[in-house]
Amino acid sequence: MMKTAITNVLVFDGSGEDPYKGEVLIEGNRIVEVARAPGKLHGAADKVIDGGGKFLMPGMTEAHTHFSWNDQPSLNAIQMMPPEEHILWCVGVAKRYLDMGWTSAIGAAAAKPRLDVVLRNAVESGQFPGPRYLAGSQEICTLGGLGDNTLPHLPFEELSFGSMVSGPEEMRQCARMFIKYGVDHLKINLSGEYIAGLSAEASPFSEEEIAMLVREAKRNGKRVAAHARSSDSVKQCVRHGIELVYHASFADEEALDMLEENKEKHFVAPGLAWLIRTNFNASEYGITPEIAEKMGYKRELEAATETLRKMHKRGIRVLPGGDYGFAWMPHGTNANDLQYLVDYVGMTAKEALLSATRLGGEIMMRPHELGQLKPGYLADLVLVDGNPLTNLGYLTEPSRIAMVMKDGVTYKTPSDPSPADASIHLPPRENPLADEGLKEAMAS
């Protein structure tokens, strides 16, 4: 098998150690040796890549994404995209993620029943480049809940954003349908969402409906993910063993206690980018900061900031994943989440990188071969022009992502053109923090 050596790099290995000067040897699709300077690799290489002193790190994992969200300003605009164009869109987005150093991703939900499955299969078969991808179902919602956007004069479920159920038996049928399609996990909307006109603190599903979904999922070896902004919905996740908890903005002390007691079972991907950019960066699309406040997003951001800081201090696993794919937060800008984890959750830059790398291997259910640069691990790595530990913003700049390797295959080199549409930076640092209510939340 082909052996490739990457020399003259600053190695961030994802173990928690500080970066060090070193070299990495790859054989086939796996790392076989990591040498720390002044030591040298013992194995011979067929090809040597001089890293030019750049920063070498594990490929990142996006824990909460929707490849089929098509950078539009509304749920309807996403859903109404014809399926033929929609799968082509997903293929293009997958390449965009890989080019920006995201070598793994969790599909939080698909806009149409099989989009995630078809994309995952195409990437795995080598038809198109993209991250390692775990495919989600369409959002499972209850009548009148988040995802039900049918109209009284057009009561056709095919036009709904989510897959609607009422009662345990309909839930069983829905779960079995998505399992038949081949999803890796099933997604349920356990709370509301302000932009859909529904309270984020509401919890519309019955315990019996949730229990049925989880039972069918576990019977078939599938995980469950939940849109869970409300405190009650977070508790439902813990009670029923729903592993992937999305948002958790309003989790109260009881919910935090429950998560902490079961922190080895759950991951939280809060979607901070959605809250921050909807509050401060959506005016062009009709959501000014004043409108966002009336909708409830300012209050939710304040609550989420306080809640997530407590989670981090309790050792609950919090990962990047921001619901990217709306007009004011397009795909490819996902690395902004890392700075958000520092500014709003209280992580250090190193902790933010570890949440995207080592914890990424854990959420992908491959902790012993993904998320770190160690012998025996899969060769998923990113070479960055600049040290992200001194400036996480480097990971938002396409031109600084000098090389991307996944499974031992190089998908991006320094000579490749950078996608201009992937470079949208953070809002001014003082803007989100200027609000006194947010300052108070962060101080607590």
TrEMBL record:
<dbReference type="Pfam" id="PF01979">
    <property type="entry name" value="Amidohydro_1"/>
</dbReference>
<dbReference type="InterPro" id="IPR006680">
    <property type="entry name" value="Amidohydro-rel"/>
</dbReference>
<feature type="domain" description="Amidohydrolase-related">
    <location>
        <begin position="55"/>
        <end position="409"/>
    </location>
</feature>
<dbReference type="InterPro" id="IPR057744">
    <property type="entry name" value="OTAase-like"/>
</dbReference>
<feature type="region of interest" description="Disordered">
    <location>
        <begin position="412"/>
        <end position="444"/>
    </location>
</feature>
<dbReference type="InterPro" id="IPR051781">
    <property type="entry name" value="Metallo-dep_Hydrolase"/>
</dbReference>
<protein>
    <submittedName>
        <fullName>Imidazolonepropionase</fullName>
    </submittedName>
</protein>
<dbReference type="InterPro" id="IPR011059">
    <property type="entry name" value="Metal-dep_hydrolase_composite"/>
</dbReference>
<dbReference type="InterPro" id="IPR032466">
    <property type="entry name" value="Metal_Hydrolase"/>
</dbReference>
